[in-house]
């Protein structure tokens, strides 16, 4: 994967990091990671990999992907990572393994964001980074207005509605909601049982590409993943991400030295302590043998430390 064909008709092979071109878009709406991810997800059409067990034999440039408005997960990640790096984020493309739902862009078991009520927070309120949604939380301000008493007022008309009927209607609505919740819960349990009965035969072997954003730049508080298909952000310990084979940015390429063919076992915390490069091997090294981009390699090991086994 370190060398990829950019022009199959010309049999031209180039270093995979050259596919990333940091670009700052001339639109203020595309300056933050969530808006960039949503643009890529909405603008491009997903094309599945020809072989779910192998990465593509070649990568297209971001210009070509935008021209045809379609691509696989690696094309999505290349475009999104180029935009994020151009906006000042410490972003990396990841070649790894994902769950079946993640690779197939299946959101049937996810909560629809349109059904979630916005939270009421005092303005301006903190921004939620890892809620799986690209929208900011809505902030409302409730101001109590003082009503001045008047000397002469008109009495309001009497309420002729039956309080007993209102109570009965509330009970009926509560029973309907309880029955609907019970039905949804039973349906969810049935789906869970069906999934357990038919496990994915390729679990841990499906190749997928996503974007890793490391903390530090642009006031990012912690590392997180972005799925370019859905524009959702995930914790680095999320169960949808099963392992990492390699990752790269516009400067270098790092290979995971572990045997990741069988679900990619992630090492413990103690195995990552020491010289950078013992777990990750850099594709480009300086003349003195040290890694050219040692800081980025060290931060990449931090991301693997947070990935669950």
Automatic annotation (TrEMBL):
Keywords tagged on the record: Coiled coil
Highest taxon, organism lineage: Eukaryota
InterPro entries, per the entry: DRC7/lobo, Papain-like_cys_pep_sf
Coiled coil residues, start to end: 163-198
PANTHER family: DYNEIN REGULATORY COMPLEX SUBUNIT 7 (PTHR35249)
Subunit structure: Component of the nexin-dynein regulatory complex (N-DRC). Interacts with TCTE1/DRC5. Interacts with DRC3 and GAS8/DRC4.
Name used for this protein in its record: Dynein regulatory complex subunit 7
Source organism per UniProt: Saguinus oedipus (Cotton-top tamarin)
């Amino acid at each position: 994967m370190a060398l990829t064909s950019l022009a199959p008709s010309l049999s031209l092979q180039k270093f995979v990091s050259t596919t990333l071109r940091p670009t700052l878009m001339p639109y203020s709406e595309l300056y933050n990671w969530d808006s960039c991810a949503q643009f890529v997800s909405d603008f491009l059409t997903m094309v599945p990999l020809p072989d779910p067990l192998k990465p593509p034999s070649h990568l297209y440039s971001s210009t070509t992907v935008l021209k045809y408005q379609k691509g696989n997960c690696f094309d999505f990640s290349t475009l999104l990572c180029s935009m994020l790096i151009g906006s000042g984020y410490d972003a990396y493309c990841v070649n790894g393994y994902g769950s079946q739902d993640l690779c197939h862009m299946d959101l049937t078991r996810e909560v629809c964001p349109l059904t979630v009520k916005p939270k009421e927070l005092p303005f301006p309120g903190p921004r939620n980074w890892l809620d799986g949604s690209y929208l900011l939380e809505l902030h409302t301000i409730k101001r109590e207005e003082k009503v001045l008493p008047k000397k002469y007022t008109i009495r309001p008309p009497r309420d002729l509605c039956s309080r007993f009927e209102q109570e009965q209607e509330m009970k009926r609505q509560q029973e309907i909601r309880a029955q609907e919740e019970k039905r949804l819960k039973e349906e969810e349990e049935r789906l869970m049982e069906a999934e357990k009965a038919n496990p994915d035969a390729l679990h841990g072997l499906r190749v997928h590409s996503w974007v890793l954003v490391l903390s530090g730049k642009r006031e990012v508080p912690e590392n997180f993943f972005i799925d370019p298909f859905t524009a959702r952000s995930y914790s680095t310990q999320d169960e949808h991400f099963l392992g990492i084979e390699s990752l790269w940015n516009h400067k270098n390429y790092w290979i995971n030295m572990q045997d990741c063919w069988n679900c990619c076992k992630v090492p413990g915390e103690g195995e990552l302590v020491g010289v950078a490069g013992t777990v990750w091997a850099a594709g480009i090294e300086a003349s003195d043998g040290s890694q050219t981009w040692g800081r980025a390699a060290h931060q990449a090991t931090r991301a693997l430390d947070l990935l669950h086994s």
